[in-house]
Specification:
globular, alpha/beta, Rossmann fold, eight-stranded mixed sheet
Amino acid sequence: MYPIPEVRQSGLLQVSDLHQIYWEESGNPAGIPVIFVHGGPGAGTAPVCRAFFNPERYRIVLMDQRGCGQSQPYAETRENTTWDLVADLEKLREFLGIDRWLVFGGSWGSTLSLAYAQSHPERVLGLILRGIFLCRQSEIDWLSEEGGVSQIYPAQWQRYIAPVAPEKRRQLVLAYHELLFGDDYETAVKAAKAWNEWESYLIRFEPQEEDSDGEASLAIARLENHYFVNLGWLAGEKAILANMNTIRHIPAVIVQGRYDLCTPMQSAWELSQAWPEAELRIVQGGHASTEEPLASALTAAADEFAHRLAVL
């Protein structure tokens, strides 16, 4: 990865009467525009997100999606759907005066990147995707219900289900929805902490014990649960795999960790089968984009696109 460049400009963009989204730019103002689409939903961006891109070659744009990071209001789920976020990306592109950009997204960010590209293919120079997640019920069940990745971390799973009454554990996502969005704020914070700590085991190849702050966990817990309950508004005719014909012409690299427990290989494989023009690169790693070998593979893909797009 590259040294983290300094932010050149940043601000809040009003995208609705309720929401303002945080954005920032770094790198070369005359470089190839690239938008970093973060995961979660609700995770927000961090300075390290700039480090996948050569700052001499790229105009690097980061955006915190609605309700998370430095966007306002914090942890807000009203007016917060996949299609609101797709519209926000377009508003930001127009605000910054960018005609077309490279779209770089991982985990939930791969979902949103694909939804955006399918909605606005004429605005996408290429796609770099990592840790493919298509927001389907099977993927949500793997993460959040008994019988999936719970079998890998049984002790940690017990801590995840502890806030839920035993009679409600057959539908944990819905049970968590009640806890996270109920009237009792302390209960919501406790549930958010348990949700976030469970997820922390799935994103690192070698997990460490994490004692997360409950209030700081509210955005990712509430937003993830909100999107999971609604299947990301991507079911039926809106499902990503059903609309691959709209983007098959766009150059793409898919980087997938073989041992990714958060977004397992199956979804990346199915995407590559529906999109044979995309290049699937399987590395011997997990989920986190900043861990090796994913970090090197993603940086290499960005370098390759810098060369490819420079000669267009």
